[in-house]
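REQUEST FORM: STRUCTURE PREDICTION
Request ID: SP-0412
Submitted by: Lab K.M.
Chain count: 1
Length (residues): 189
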Amino acid sequence: MSHPSSPPLAARRAWLGSLAATVLAAGWARTAAHASTHSTLPDFGTAPEFTGIERWLNSEPLTLAQLRGRVVLVDFWTYACINCIRTLPHVNRWVQQYTPLGLTVVGVHTPEFPFERSASNVEAAMRRHGVKHAVAQDNRYSTWKAYSNQYWPATYLIDVQGRIRYKHFGEGAYERTESVIRTLLAARR
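STATUS: Completed
RESULT:
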C-alpha cells in the first residue's frame, strides 16, 4: 500500500481534483451558454392572444395570459397539408418530452379548404396522427391574422414573459427548434 503522500497517489489526487474542476466548469459553462443563447434570441414582440377560436379540442379554452410562466409552442397546421402531417411526429414528441418541464403546445388548426372546417374531421385527423395537445380551431383565421401568419406549418416559440422568440415556417429545422425549446426552458429556472 502506498503512503498518502507518495508520488503516484498524489498525482492521482491531483488528476481527480482537476477532473472534478473541469466537470464543474463545464456545467457552469453550459448554464451560462443557455442564458447567453436566450439573451441572443431575437425578440419579435409580445405574442398575440388566441382570438376568434371556434372551439377548443383536447382542452378547455386557453389564453396566453394564463400560460404566462410557461414556454409556449404555437403550431399553425391543417390536417390535409402533407407538410403539416410530416411535422406532427416531432411536435408530438416535444409534447411528451417537454410538457413536464414547462412547455405547452397549442396547435392552431386553420383550414385551407372548406372540408377542413369540420370539427369531426379535425378530431379524426388528431386521433389518426396521435395529437394529444390542445388544438384551437381557427376557422375564421382570426388567430392566424393576429400572428400575421402566411404558412402551413408555422411554429412560434413564446418565452415565459409572453414574447415571441423564435419562428420557423415549413418542415425541417427540428434540431434547431428543439434547441430553442431547451434554451427557453432552461431560462425559466
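NOTES: The CA atoms of residues 25 and 99 lie 29 Å apart.
Reviewed by: T.R.
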